[in-house]
Amino acid sequence: MLGSKKHLTVTRKIRPENLLKNLVSAFLVTALLQPATGHASPARVGNGDDGADLESLSEIKSGPILEARMRAVDLVRKLDTSGVAGLGMLEPEISKTTLFLAREDLPAHLNQDQGVFHSSMSGKVFARTLPEPHAATRFFPAAQGLTSDQLVALHIHEALHRALPKTVRETEASVAAMTLAITTPAASHDSVVASAQRWIPQEALESGASTVAGAYNDPTSVATISTEARVRQPSLLSYEYRHYDSRGEEGISTLPISSAHVIRSDLYPFGDQRSTLGIGIEGALVQGTQRTWMGSLGISGRMQLWSGRGFDIGAWGLITLNVLSSEELKNSALGRDATSVGLSMRKDLRFLTIENRIGYTLPSEAEQKISSITYRHEYGSIVLASVSAAARVQHFRIGGFAELNLADDYRVNGGAFPFSSGRYRLLCGGPKISYETLDFVASFSGKLILDATAGVNLDYLGNLLGQGAGQGAWVASLGVFF
Amino acid sequence: MSRIFTQELLGSMLITLALSGCGIQEVTDSERVYPLDGVKLLRAGIDSPTDPSTLSQPEYRLDTDSRLLLRLESLSQYNNTIRTTDGYSVQLIVTTKAETDAERDHARSHLQLCALTKNWMMLATWKRGHPFDSSGKWSKPGGDYDPDQCFSASITTQGSLSFNVTPWFVMEVRGRGKNFGFVLLTSAPVTIGGDASGADAPRFEWTTSTSIIHPRTP
């Protein structure tokens, strides 16, 4: 109410002649400032929504413009722009955009048309695009007069408007500079990287989620890579100490194994930030009650298939070889070679991390010679399904996991002794607490049998490095990501 | 000379071919002896299934807390070969470390061989016949056996102890197709030759009863 009275009071002070003067003054100031602001702000490429070019479009299916696109794709592939921060989606934007040709030229009357790559000296527009992922590119007849090299540059320029991070893609100066850096005859991967570092600010890459092309028309596709996504630094070097719990009389482990020291190195030298491929090696020293054995050698392949919207989807394969084992370990029920493959899905929410894993272990065999009798252990295939969840409190993750192993028949034959387990289940679970940053991880976890087919324990799976042994294990680990 | 040599050579080759073609083979006494390959000591207090003192030993000392599991793992292969008629019998032979007749008779009187009723393997312990699931646990520590199928020993001419297990072989192996083997029990300390002792190792013999000095039937 007070506001209304004040407003009314002010209104009463304005006389008609003063009002007219004020309006004229405001108009003049606005008219003077308009060109100044237009030149002071970055030139922005628009969508040409004045309606002039929305009619009479035909899709380009052949001709020099299409051929120039192929050359542009070859050029960015040669420069490996997919490996340059901020340019990961340039090649798809060039190769997949739909090209249209307008019937008539348009005058370059929009601010967005003022860049050197957008219009000719005679003021005619060459091409327009929406600064959005997957948008189409509209060429105008004026572009048909360009040389092949100029068309290549035009393709790259228009694609940069869609592929660069959102805060940069509409800045004509940055896009033009990047276009030149890519199309200059002396361009190299390193020079493009240097130019990208200059023209694409780090905050544009790390502004919470650097929006990249790929999801505009496809809701199932990638939209963002979180700055905290593990895919950014997937390589890991870690040490793990496992203390096996061998309580209970029922166990097939013939070695008095109490603990294991595991060194693991996963390196991801291949791929980009959206899709990484790496190879891991893990070795173990198995600690017995009286001595230490060289354990299995694990060779793994891990591939980050997809990362976006907080999801990390990966595929993994693990081969555990006992070729390096001592005779004691190799000549036991745990001395089999195991091959496993699977998928992992991880979602990082603000306060919660959820990860699902599914896996399949191929059947295999192991021989165990006791005195003069040789026993053959035949392990059936194993299907693994696990769910883990952890609450995120700053860098701490506190949670647990549940893991179901569903295994086919485990058979033992030797001399006059046969044994067959039939299909069996092993449901394990346990707590896990970890401290994790982008560079470092420390964790402590436990794995216990929650439910199982009568008499079955982890020894039946015959994979000391994989599922473990006995009734479970307590694990402490330290690792460095890079 | 060369013609005569060639004729003799051809003759010997023809005879050899004829004999082998008819399946004629020389049978010796040694081929009737089958050393037991399944020998495992059970001792109360030893829970490790691969404890070295329970396997491949030259001798085993038995007492009330120590028993010996015995089995010829491949016995079923000889199911149709072994004769149990016309004076033949199946004997399980063990050799004691006794040096005098009195000590041998002492061992003979205290040892008892009983047929097992549950399957087992070389990872057997005092508590378990095998380590797999609940079926591996002995119902009584020290091995499950049938008291009605226990055999006493006789002393052979070589001073060993012989158990006539022909009824067991006929009923269990040949009849039911089961070969769970035996447990050797003693009510007093006795030392017998182990599976690593060569000639003194426990063994099966398919033999006539003429070599038995003091035959005893169960």
Number of H/I helices of chain B:
3
Order of strands, widest sheet of chain A: 5-6-7-8-9-10-11-14-15-18-19-20
Q: Round the Cα radius of gyration of chain B to an integer and report it.
A: 21 Å
Task: Give the overall shape of chain B.
Answer: globular
End-to-end Cα distance of chain A, whole Å, is: 62 Å
Q: Biggest β-sheet of chain A, characterized? A: 12 strands, antiparallel, barrel
The separation of the N and C termini of chain B measures: 67 Å
Which strand order do you get reading across the main beta sheet of chain B?
A: 1-12-5-9-8
Oligomerization state: heterodimer
Largest sheet of chain B: 5 strands, antiparallel
Number of strands of chain B: 12
What does this molecule look like?
The complex is a heterodimer of chains A (482) and B (218). Chain A is of the alpha+beta class. Helices cover 23% and strands 38% of the residues of chain A. Chain A has 10 helices and 20 strands. In chain A, the strands form 3 sheets. In chain A, strands 5-6-7-8-9-10-11-14-15-18-19-20 form a 12-stranded antiparallel beta barrel. In chain A, strands 1-2-4-3 form a 4-stranded mixed β-sheet, covered by helices on one side. In chain A, a hairpin with a 7-residue loop joins strand 3 and strand 4 (137-139). In chain A, helix 7 (172-183) runs antiparallel to helix 8 (189-199). The longest helix of chain A has 25 residues, at 16-40. The two termini of chain A are 62 Å apart. Chain B is of the alpha+beta class. Chain B has 3 helices and 12 strands; from the N terminus they run H-E-E-E-E-E-H-E-E-E-E-H-E-E-E. In chain B, the strands form 3 sheets. Chain B has a 5-stranded antiparallel β-sheet, covered by helices on one side. The longest helix of chain B has 21 residues, at 2-22. Chain B is globular, with a radius of gyration of 21 Å. The N and C termini of chain B lie far apart (67 Å). Mean pLDDT of chain B is 80; it is low at 12-31 and 210-218. Classes of the chains: A alpha+beta (482), B alpha+beta (218).
